């Protein structure tokens, strides 16, 4: 039923959220949420605090000979070359070679191992970071 008795005659006021500059001018507090603010958890250091690495409390994982043999065996079973695996996992050139040869100074990246596992269809052993005991 339509008519003058069913209409809403109250004024409708539309307001938008104030911008950061307007809130500062009005003296309202502005809180910004910082993602990973004050932490070193960007995925590149395997979830280990950078302070511990810099102080020598933790040694980052290096590729082991066993890991290299596992990758090589799975890769040859799939009849892939090292460059084919690099392309399948979207790695830079020679990343697979560095893992298979257990290159010294090369740090194991857990996301790269996960991509290799998915491309090869096998479960790889993951080396872990070593904690150094404090001398007394």
Write the layout of secondary structure elements.
Layout: H1 20-26, H2 50-54, E1 58-59, H3 65-77, H4 82-88, H5 95-100, H6 110-120, E2 130-131
Antiparallel strand pairs: 1-2
Please characterize this protein's 3D structure.
By secondary structure, the protein is mainly alpha-helical. It has a domain at 62-123: lambda repressor-like DNA-binding domains (434 Repressor (Amino-terminal Domain), Orthogonal Bundle). It contains 6 helices and 2 strands; from the N terminus they run H-H-E-H-H-H-H-E. It has a two-stranded antiparallel sheet with strand order 1-2.
Task: Describe the structure in brief.
The chain is 36% helix and 3% strand.
Got a strand count?
2
Shape label: elongated
- Relative strand content: under 5%
Main CATH class of the domain at 62-123: Mainly Alpha
Order of helices and strands: HHEHHHHE
Find the CATH superfamily of the domain at 62-123.
lambda repressor-like DNA-binding domains
* Share in helix: 25-40%
CATH topology category name of the domain at 62-123: 434 Repressor (Amino-terminal Domain)
């Amino acid at each position: 039923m339509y008519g003058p008795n069913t209409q809403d005659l109250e004024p409708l006021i539309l307001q938008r959220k104030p911008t950061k500059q307007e809130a500062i001018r009005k003296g309202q507090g502005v809180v910004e949420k910082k993602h990973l603010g004050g932490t070193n958890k960007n995925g590149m250091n395997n979830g280990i605090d950078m302070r511990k690495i810099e102080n020598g409390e933790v040694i980052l994982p290096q590729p082991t000979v066993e890991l290299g043999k596992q990758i090589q065996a799975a890769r040859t079973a799939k009849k892939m070359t090292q460059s084919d695996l690099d392309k399948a996992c979207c790695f830079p050139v020679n990343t697979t070679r560095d893992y298979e040869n257990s290159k010294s100074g090369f740090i194991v990246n857990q996301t790269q191992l996960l991509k290799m596992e998915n491309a090869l269809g096998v479960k790889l052993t993951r080396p872990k970071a070593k904690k150094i005991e404090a001398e007394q």
